Amino acid sequence: MEKEEFENYIKAGKILKTVQDNARKKAKIGMKLLDLAESIEKEIFDAKAGMAFPVNLSANNLAAHYTPSFNDETLIEEKDILKIDIGVHVEGFIADASFTVDFSEENSKLVEATEQALENALSMIKIGTQIGKIGEEIEKTITSFGFKPIENLSGHGLMKFIAHASPSIPNISKNDSRTIEEGKAYAIEPFASTGKGRVKEATKTEIFEFAKQIPLRNLDARKIQAKAIEEFNGLPFAERWLMKEFGETKTKIALRELLLKGSISGHPILKEDKDILVSQAEHTIIAFNEEIHITTK
Q: What is the CATH number of the domain that holds 215?
């Protein structure tokens, strides 16, 4: 990793930390999720940074990949436990961090489980730490609180304009001897559940990502494909971002064609069973100059 790349990772992390601190203050009972998402995203653009992915605002049993739809009327409710997951990039170098807000304060132990799991994992990570050992520490911490780590969600590597790169960083103990490497960036991302600790895909998808460039007949589909490549730089994007430019009907028709032909892929909402609650905590780290740097803390 070159010094300039490292500095861009650090800059992205600082911007994200400021945005995250402000998001904690902005999120209020009765507020529209759409207003919260757009406010966070605007703050990132105002800081002259880019979106690494649409703001994820996943409540209660929803674990990940919920971003408000166009004209979404969903409000934050008093009993909600809301995961706020934010991604920022500077010249393609990404910071990824999340936290959980328990508005009723009735589930503070669940929130603490992921926060403590994250802290314990970060405290043990050095260059050369085995990835399987990180998952073991996360699992041990979450289960000590009486909850289940979500076994099929994980942290991940970060690369230039790639928000989810290899390797996966497990949230459970695994026999994975790969190690944290000098010059690499990673997102450490524990999830805790009051249920069985396994998510499944919902039918709804609001987040998409470029997969490959192909010839297309539909003009709007061609424009969106170009936008996915050139403006979003291959990073995930929200359907609602497109609707502001193309309108609801044209966007849906174009996305359907892009999906069918394999130009884009979808990231469906990931959820636990009904009435189950999920918490999340996350920081980005970089192994650089033989040290571990937490960019988002």
A: 1.10.10.10
Whether 65 sits among the annotated catalytic residues: the reply is no
Select which of 5, 41, 96, 151 is catalytic. 96
293 given a catalytic annotation:
no
List the chain pLDDT tens, one digit each, 297 residues: 999 999 999 999 999 999 999 999 999 999 999 999 999 999 999 999 999 999 999 999 999 999 999 999 999 999 999 999 999 999 999 999 999 999 999 999 999 999 999 999 999 999 999 999 999 999 999 999 999 999 999 999 999 999 999 999 999 999 999 999 999 999 999 999 999 999 999 999 999 999 999 999 999 999 999 999 999 999 999 999 999 999 999 999 999 999 999 999 999 999 999 999 999 999 999 999 999 999 999
Kindly give, in sequence order, each residue whose CB lies less than 8 Å from that of residue 124, ignoring residues fewer than 6 positions away.
133, 134, 137
Whether residues 83 and 181 share a domain: the answer is yes
Q: Say how many domains are in the chain.
A: 2
DSSP H stretches of helix in 47-129: 108-124
Tell me if residue 267 is catalytic. no
189: annotated active-site residue: yes
